[in-house]
Design brief:
Length: 86
């Protein structure tokens, strides 16, 4: 509400209708994703099972790429005492 007792208006105003539309859109997207997953599992199950080893390799490589950024591996100078450096 504004100072004059009127609901907010304008392009950035959040109203109950805007919230309802956002929730409806999110539900529609979730149902569409669920339908796609069910379709893939029921009609293409053997193909998905055959792709699992490759997906696992990609997940492990991606995890190492992003999760090892804080470490200093390789030719970088390190102050880590576990590697015998002082």
């Amino acid at each position: 509400m504004n100072h004059d007792g009127q609901p907010p208006t304008g392009p950035g105003a959040v109203t109950a209708d805007n919230k309802r539309v956002k929730w409806f859109g999110a539900i529609v997207l979730a149902l569409a994703a669920l339908g796609l997953v069910l379709y893939l599992v029921t009609d293409h199950g053997p193909h998905l099972l055959a792709a699992l080893p490759y997906a696992g390799i990609i997940v492990v490589m991606t995890a190492h790429l992003f999760l090892h950024r804080g470490h200093s591996h390789g030719g970088h100078q390190s102050t880590d005492h576990r590697h015998g450096k002082t």
